Amino acid sequence: MSESTEAPRPADGDAAGSCCGVSSCCSDTEQSLDPAITVLEAKTDAGCGCVNDQDGAHDLPVVVIGAGPVGLAAAAHLAERGLEFLVLEAGDSVGAAISDWGHVRLFSPWRYDTDAAARRLLEPTGWTLPDPETLPTGAELVRDYLTPLAEVPELAVRIRTGTRVVAVARQGVDVTRTVGRDEQPLLVRTIDPDGTVTDLTARAVIDASGTWGRSNPLGHSGLPAPGEDQAGPYLTGPLPDVLSRDRDRFAGKHTLVVGMGHSAANTLLSLAELAKTAPGTRITWAVRSASVARLYGGGDADGLPARGALGTRLKAAVEGGEIELVRSFTITGFASPNAGPAAGPVKVIGVTPDGERVIEADALVAATGFRPDLDMLREVRVELDPATQAPVRLAPMIDPNFHSCGTVPPHGERDLAHPETGFYLVGMKSYGRAPTFLMATGYEQVRSVVAALAGDRAAADAVELDLPETGVCSTNLITEDQLPGAAAGDGCGTSCDTEPAETPAAVTAGEAGGGSCCGGSAPEPVTIGIGAPAGLGFATGSVHGYSGETERDDN
After folding, report:
1. Which one of 420, 444, 461 terminates a domain?
2. Which GO MF terms are attached to this record (predicted)?
3. Counts of helices then strands in the chain (DSSP H, E)
């Protein structure tokens, strides 16, 4: 994203504001005096003479894709900057993806789960931040934060739900065309539930659509196993509500859980709890690795007690026979009855060091992580790292082979920019296939991007990040033997490591707040700034990420 060299148009004297219904007519700081209508609508309704002189591209909105925490944070910053914007959400309501795992409890308290600009919009409405030290569930995050935020006048009329974005392009030119490309607005194609297709033009696009709903395959080598598509009816989603909403899918049946992150651990422990009251409930846990030492963690020695309790509980459940653990299991195929689950279990075929093994299951939980939807971006010029599928300048900072979620340094608009001027990937989608995303990082991303779109280069480059001192990438299930204040669920992805690491000194004083789906026991804020050495953030675990840990074979 290059800086604009166009000088602001002069205002039409003192009467301009009253004539146009905006705070500063025909300038880059103009904002509607009525937050329920756009600047262009206010000026048109007031008969402002400068409307016809406006550059059409200047009046186009910034389109935000996704009305989750990061998308709505982008909207809040755009509203504060007085920029035109439109938020498009595929779900029926804001926070739709989070609602799918609403039973899950975040691992970070409220004080890290909200965006500063969003709070500034909410507070005049009488909204107050819930107990800063309380750990909300996904449902509470939607109910007590995202829904009220979407209802503030500055945002309410600019959010369209039930609107799925199917493509982003440059109007009038395909991805191969270079001459005059940046002179054309971006084009966003949407489809409504009734099938209506609409093309919208935009001055910029902020894609905060996340990765939820696009799970990694169960097969090996990053590819679906033969027959995996036909096994779809047996899949229950990566974070099923085992003890409530989805209980009937599991009670009295055999479930196979695949994966070695905290999402898998949450589901396994919930299934073990269900088995106590639902006779016939059986649980098998399959992992590709020969060791599960990383997920078991350090137990009582873990620097994060809640995470240690999770590993301790899971290890006890396996050793106690509540969960059957199958190690070194690589899935090579599926054989499903033609009539689906009603006709019997699916056969999951795999290889182990001892040869082929077949596991029959009534339900499958694929806790295998997520990947971004890049098909919708085929006609824009994005520059992605071939390994992580993250923006190339961001990729080295988040590579899970070398980073846990807390060792990711602050980054902003310059790191997120693509060859396609005005297009940005933010939030979880900006991390591609890396599982190390923090909500707080997403909030800082959009603050920087919006500052750049507003022409405030200094603010865009002053990238800072406020994280919990012992933040981790995932969460765990509340159980009777867990320490008070520990949390349930998994809002982030795979685990960070367990060794305590030296804390880098704070570089700059950051903006208070900032959301995070990760947290820790008794977290303390640590601010890291853009002046930190390359590759150095704040370590929440060992110096390397989850792939850098040497697994032991003694567990």
Report:
1. 461
2. flavin adenine dinucleotide binding; monooxygenase activity
3. 17, 17
pTM over 0.90: no
Mean pLDDT, the chain, integer: 77
Give the amino acid at 166.
V
Based on the fold, state whether residues 361 and 379 are members of the same structural domain. Answer: no
User: What Å distances lie between residue 182 and 86, 175, 416, CA to CA?
Assistant: 21, 12, 18
Beta strands 85-88 and 254-258: pairing type? unpaired
Contact 502, 436 (CB under 8 A): no
Digit-coded pLDDT (tens) for 451-469: 999 999 999 999 887 655 4
**What CA–CA distance (Å, rounded) separates 413 from 394?**
10
337: containing domain: 228-366
3-class DSSP assignment, residue 39: helix
Tokens matching residue 454? 């507003």
d(CA 346, CA 364): 9
Structural domain includes residue 478: no
pLDDT in tens, 507-543: 233 333 333 333 333 333 333 333 323 322 222 222 2
- Contact, 105 vs 475, CB < 8 A? yes
> Same structural domain for residues 159 and 242?
no
Q: Which residue has the tokens 């199917």?
A: 166
Do 425 and 391 touch, CB atoms closer than 8 A?
yes
Residues 6+ apart with CB under 8 A from 171: 184, 185, 186, 187, 201
Q: 197-202 and 186-191: which strand pairing?
A: antiparallel
Provide the β-strand partners of residue 548. none
- Domain annotation covers residue 543: no
Q: Domain boundary at 299, 334, 366, which?
A: 366
The two tokens of residue 318 are: 């396996």
Supply φ then ψ for residue 544, to 5 degrees.
-115, 165
The DSSP 8-state label assigned to residue 134 in this structure reads -
Residue 264 sits in the same domain as residue 408:
no
Read off the CATH number of the domain in which 382 is found.
Answer: 3.50.50.60
129 and 256 in a single domain? The answer is no
The pLDDT-based confidence of 58 (bands split at 50, 70, 90) is: low
- Cα–Cα dist 482/242, whole Å: 19
CA distance 499 to 220: 29
**Pair 308, 426 in one domain:** no
Mean pLDDT of 397-414: 77
Q: Give the pLDDT mean for 357-371.
A: 94
Q: What pLDDT score does 305 carry?
A: 42
Structurally, the chain folds into a number of domains equal to 2
Per residue in 492-503, pLDDT (tens digit) is 333 333 222 332
Structure token pair of residue 357: 């093994």
Name the one residue in this structure whose structure tokens are 């570089």: 507
**Domain match, 234 and 349 both:** yes
